[in-house]
Amino acid sequence: MATLPEATVTIDDEAGALAGGTDILTVLACVEHDDDITPRVFSSTKALLETHGYSPGVDYCAMHFEETGKPVIFVGLPKVTVGTIGRLDSSGNTGTSVISVAAGANGVLDQVDGILTVVTGGTIGTDQIVFDLSLDGGRTTKRVRLGLAASYALPYVGQTLSFAAGTLVAGNVALRWATTAPRWDQAGLADARDALAAQNKQSRSWLVVGDLLVAQDATDVVAEVNGYETENERFVYARAQVRDRKTQGALSKIRVNMVGSPTLTFAEIGGTGDTITRSAGSWIADGFAVGMVVTVAGSVSNNVTGRIATLSALVITLDATDLAVEGPVSSCTVVGSHGLIFAEVGGTGDTITRSGGSWLADGLAVGDVVTVTGTASNNVSGAIAALSATVLTFAATDLAAEEIGSHNVTISAGENDSQWVALVDSGFGAIDDKIRIDLGAGRGYKRSPITGWLFRRPVQWAASIREYQHDVQIPTWRKEDGPCDGWSLEDDEGNTVEHDERSDGGLLLARFTCFRSFSNGPAGAFIALSLTRAQEGSLLSRTHNMAVANVASSVTQAETENAIGQVLELNDNGTATKASLRVLEDRVNSALAIALLQRKSEGPRASAAAWKASTSDVLNVPEAELTGVLDLRLGATLEKIRTRVRIQTAGS
């Protein structure tokens, strides 16, 4: 059976594997809209925003355009896992207006660490409210004049702040919140590869935007870049980022207050079902809900805490809290927050059940070690054995029965740097002997050219930008190029808060691309090394070497493919004559010399490259196959330089 004529190239550890578009990067990322998985070439942020709207991938491209001056092939992927809003904390809001944050029409679009601070307070809808807003954890702030409005749509990031009726107090840090970005799935990556293969657009590498949470995510990326070689004769490697360090997992603290100054009447029903009736306003409009725990102050006989069983606009019915007959009473305050029920099951499996919000959205996960403070009887630490949106189950931590409002309780989980390094090392250890993926770990602060915020962005963004500022053979970690422009591992006081491989260590041993500083300067964030997952000791474990090998493979594939259909002179045994093979070899080697050996602006890309055809292949048969070997000698990259200082003494 006849098959399609083709030329193939396979890389091994002694020869090479990309390149037709050595100046072009392919970006695969979730988008706000037009997620049609169609590869498009962009060279301007304006055009990209008009087509796909804002997303982290678009934000990366804006940096790429500014700092490299080069275009990208952009593939917009569907948002399969939506971005979430969690870790809400309104405990600092002493006003009566309930502030909430919700996803925009196209969902949460980026990861933010939000802080809202009231500058000019007053009554919502009556006074000119002004607040300071930060979306980067307080590193930068922007003054926002809310005026008489009751909502504010945050530009680009897909979130809207809403302000219920009531007051805000100047100086209050009235709301803190955190969000996650949307994510793609394996099907989206597979469709993207097919779409790229269907077009004649080639690139040096792929940048996959969106954290890889588990090893299977990395395996999905590897499957597509490997398939791009074996099935589509395209030679690339993919940069991708493993999950962030868990520092954001924390119980949301939602606090609501009684608005206005109604009088309260307390009724003792007997047993359960005692009530608090207000003379005006609405419990529901003020944000109170069934399951919340309320605390009353300012009464003579009913300064109590209890859980809401039912409520209407004017009447709260408590579950099991005894009230005394009293009222109408003025000058009372009522504060409510989602209730927490600590349950002692006995042995293992004690639980904390929340009446509102979500443990999952707040960033907690099975296996996290959480610490609880602010309770009367349950200030404990323990590992999570099981987790749903509302129920947290401990593995072996003993709890005492207790019910409490959440606005004064802190429940948080996180990883220190060494714990995180150990976990991502073990979690992604199976991604081994894979030459076409470069896994990054760690983040740095980088100002967004679109939003202006100093967001925490993956090290792979910095490595990719540095990569495309130079030719393929230049390492992203070349010291003389200086620190990555605008990237920082420090807080505003100059303290290192992100992983620094020089002082923290562990990521290079685990074979991750990562950031470092230099002890003797200059100051700033440098790429420590850029590593593929090739075998230990392989030259192809250095990503720039893989890029050169890809150039060699692409050139060889293209030039040998041009020989399809040629007629060779044969010897009596069916093998090609040396003279006819030499014509083909000269063509391939001439192209290799131009692509790899000629001195360009940053020097030759390799030290030697030679393709030699087999002289033993029998070619006088249908579908004859001619094989060849490409010998590629990469350039040397200096990594370790040792110097001895010799002190000359007088008279020597």
Question: What is the CA-based Rg, rounded?
Answer: 31 Å
How many helical stretches? 8
Specify the overall morphology.
elongated
Note the main sheet. Answer: 15 strands, antiparallel
Strand content: 25-35%
The helicity comes to 10-25%
Low-confidence stretches: 11-20
How far apart are the first and last residues' alpha carbons, in Å? 84 Å
Mean pLDDT figure: 91
Q: How many β strands by DSSP? A: 37
Structural class: alpha+beta
Tell me briefly what this model is.
The protein has 652 residues and is α+β, with helices and mostly antiparallel strands. It contains eight helices and 37 strands.
Explain what this protein looks like in three dimensions.
The chain is elongated, with a radius of gyration of 31 Å. The longest helix is centred in the last third of the chain and has 20 residues, at 578-597. Among the domains are: 85-181, no CATH class; 255-413, no CATH class. The model is unreliable at 11-20 (pLDDT under 50). Helix 2 (56-68) runs parallel beside helix 6, helix 3 (186-197) runs parallel beside helix 4 (215-230) and helix 7 runs antiparallel to helix 8 (578-597). Helix content is 17%, strand content 28%. With 652 residues, the protein is of the alpha+beta class.
